[in-house]
Amino acid sequence: MKRILVTGGAGFIGSHLCDRLLKEQNDVICLDNYFTGSKDNIRHLLDNHNFELIRHDITTPYYAEVDEIYNLACPASPVHYQYNPIKTFKTSVYGAVNMLGLARRTKAKILQASTSEVYGDPAVHPQVEGYWGNVNPIGIRSCYDEGKRAAETLFMDYNRQNNVRVKIIRIFNTYGPRMNPNDGRVVSNFIVQALKGENITIYGDGSQTRSFQYVSDLIEAMIRMMNTPDDFTGPVNIGNPGEFTMLELAAMVIKLTNSSSKIVFCELPGDDPKQRRPDISIAYEKLSGWTPSIKLEEGLKETIAYFDHIL
Ligand code: NAD
Ligand code: UDP
User: Does residue 203 have an active-site annotation?
Assistant: First the structure.
């Protein structure tokens, strides 16, 4: 039995990861400060003897004997990460230092939940891992983008300098049940608006694209990545290459919810990337033929059913 630490374990992705790790008979420690996560996401695990829940902020050190660390703690929605940008940056950077220090002391393997945001508003399309990105260092998204870039730097330096066994995945827009309904990201916004019959808010003209990955495909890739040989650090793109404009997404959500909601156009936030699609050849090659299996329409149906239930 492995003892596995999941930071941000009460969040959307973290809670699904805890489910999967417990199903595989691991001992799981979930750390969270509940900034954007919720006990509701892991309430069903509280009676499991292999699960421990700890309120902790990763900007301060934490110590426990562990075999593996998944570092997910960080607000991921622009609305939330821009709420207190200094805190967001500290969570990424101090959090990475604290968790890497723990990995060094305990000789644990550590996986970083990095992001497609490291590519910024990409000039290379689709995005390959070798592309260094086009990120504004002083804009409103920088606390997140640059925080995640600095965390990647720290991961690689701890690997080169201290032989810490690191794994970096760059996650592209992921959605599914347990997203926070007030989280402000596009999939949850559109579904909640459609279910309530409210206007669907498209930022800008809706021609910007994103590639949406269903959460179960991501979890499978995370587990496979952690189990790759020690000399493979990544970074690896993990996402679904299906690419959609926000207008296409809105139309699909309206159709699937049978909603009478109307589309309205709102101001585009600063530095909003115009396009995003992962090249997943490295993931396919290194993660034993991993490729996403859930199509957008299928994943949206599951997510709509979840929001319908909680609303
Ligand atoms: P989320 O907001 O649901 O989860 C983040 C969790 O981290 C929450 O439970 C929050 O309370 C916790 N947290 C935040 N700051 C913390 C701190 N200082 N100390 C302890 N806990 C803290 O978001 P998510 O979508 O589940 O994202 C999880 C991770 O995956 C994040 O690191 C995010 O950057 C990364 N990621 C997500 C996506 C996506 O599309 N969902 C894309 C790229 C990267
Ligand atoms: N977006 C939108 N309406 C919303 C929320 C977001 O049109 O109500 C747009 C946003 O401007 C961006 C895309 O949807 O172009 C994805 O936004 P999200 O916040 O989900 O993720 P990110 O921009 O970080 O990829």
Answer: no
